[in-house]
């Protein structure tokens, strides 16, 4: 696993999730955020509505892009999909933290600078959800096992709930990035997330990047909301 490079600028630690149904809406939010935000996440909703073309535009404008597609398929399919995303110029790409999938993703990225992030257990899952899905192990045990496997394979980083970040950092050591969704600034609704934390707490627990969507995108003043999160990050650093 590559050595972790310190992220000095709080702007680069905040990733704004463009979980929106159209490129037009995403363009409007990016326009309102301006230079306040340097890093964006594109997931299924926007990705399937022209988001990959929009990602190219953002990258051409000097923004960083996190493609959150959580790939998981047979190895050959994953490797070729990752190669396509690497050619796009994205900074991060998620895959599910299954050993075969992680190995294929690392093969697919080749010598490109794309960083593969392994998703451990979704932040909307709790113990009951894992039990319902047939997992014998609970959240902590499942996360820890997958992080250990990811480290052995050499994955570039981990996506985990902020409540798991300190434990994950203990397994990764100083190597590998930790990216945490489920971050909610003070006064925000947790929505459909079940394992959440405030920005400062997530940073102090060992997270390198925080993914924040609705509390910024749906705010009356998105730029002010983003700056407030960045201020919490800076204070925690």
From TrEMBL:
Its family remark reads: Belongs to the OMP decarboxylase family. Type 1 subfamily.
The family database entries (InterPro entries) matched by this protein are listed as:
Aldolase_TIM, OMPdecase, OMPdecase_AS, OMPdecase_bac, OMPdeCOase_dom, RibuloseP-bd_barrel
Question: What's the catalysed reaction?
Answer: orotidine 5'-phosphate + H(+) = UMP + CO2
What positions constitute the catalytic site? 70 (proton donor)
Q: Which CDD domains match?
A: OMP_decarboxylase_like
What name is this protein filed under?
A: Orotidine 5'-phosphate decarboxylase
Start and end of every Orotidine 5'-phosphate decarboxylase domain? 13-229
Species of the source: Ancylobacter crimeensis
Described by its record, this protein's role is as follows: Catalyzes the decarboxylation of orotidine 5'-monophosphate (OMP) to uridine 5'-monophosphate (UMP).
Subunit structure comment from the entry: Homodimer.
PANTHER family per the UniProt record, alphabetical: OROTIDINE 5'-PHOSPHATE DECARBOXYLASE
Keyword annotations for this protein, in alphabetical order, are: Decarboxylase, Lyase, Pyrimidine biosynthesis
